[in-house]
Amino acid sequence: MTAKVPLPERLEATFLKSAPSLKQCPRDDVAEVAFAGRSNAGKSSVLNQITGNKRMAKVSKTPGRTQLLNLFDLRRGGRLVDLPGYGYAKAGRAAQTTWQSAVNDYLSRRDNLVGLVLVTDIRHPGQVYDEEIIAWSAASELPICVLLNKADKLGSGAQGKALAAFERAHSDHPALTALCFSALKGKGKMALIELLCDWFDAAAGADQR
Ligand SMILES: Nc1nc2c(ncn2[C@@H]2O[C@H](COP(=O)(O)OP(=O)(O)OP(=O)(O)O)[C@@H](O)[C@H]2O)c(=O)[nH]1
Ligand SMILES: [Mg+2]
Q1: Where are the domains of the chain?
Q2: For ligand 1, which residues put their CB under 6 angstroms from it?
Q3: Given phi > 0 = left and psi -120 to 50 = alpha, else beta, which region is 52?
Q4: Which of 48, 83, 94, 159 is 20 to 30 Å apart from 65, CA to CA?
Q5: Nearest atom (ligand 1) to Cα of 181
Q6: CA 163 to chain centre
């Protein structure tokens, strides 16, 4: 019997590269987990929280900050990818279309994608783009973790209700985990780290078979 490796408190990461589109992404021989979500939902903040590095991904009060696919190598193996946020109206239609096609291309054609983290704002459930991504992950049988982020903006009773309602609405999804999360306070961090480690370990195990 092998001893269980203790869960790391943070996933040590180093910046690998920024890519404007799938074509410029590095070779797809390392398992990747992508972070998607509406602009300003907190994708970059979540990445900084779980890597324990406030300067890893750029956080901004101005939506639309992350305009490239930003790839980070994990020390334990595997990669995290910060995707450009969708639904940022002020960016201009041409720019939005370019980023969205980069995200769509990446999601639909990246063979080494082993899981998706969808960052949502707990106060705004049922957003159209979010629901589209959730439905797409179900159809593609890709595991998805939906973070109800900015939970610190609600009291604990309201957080529990939001989570229960979200889970009820998506109970037919074959591989969805929902977590109340706060990138600001670190709530949900260890649960997310554990899930990511499980995904990467499963991918590594599948490779060895
Ligand atoms: N209160 C609170 N604020 C948060 C939390 N997570 C992120 N924020 C704030 O939300 C804003 C947007 O955060 P980002 O991490 O830049 O969001 P993003 O999804 O990467 O945005 P784009 O790069 O534009 O797609 C910043 O002002 C963050 O400080 C959270 O858990 N709680
Ligand atoms: Mg960002």
Answers
A1: 13-208
A2: 37, 39-45, 59-61, 63-66, 85, 119, 149-150, 152-153, 182-184
A3: left
A4: 159
A5: 31
A6: 18
- Whether the CB-CB separation of 151 and 68 falls below 8 Å is answered with no
Both tokens of 130, joined, read 């979010």
Residues 181-190 have pLDDT tens digits of 999 999 999 9
The Cα 183–Cα 173 span in angstroms is 25
CATH topology of domain 13-208: Rossmann fold (3.40.50)
Residue 159 phi, psi dihedral angles, 5° rounding: -60, -45
Residues in Cβ contact with 70 at an 8 Å cutoff, skipping those fewer than 6 apart: 15, 17, 18, 19, 57, 81, 82
Phi, psi values for residue 83, rounded to 5°: -90, 155
Question: Each residue of 21-35: pLDDT tens digit?
Answer: 899 999 888 999 999
Residue 208 confidence (pLDDT): 59
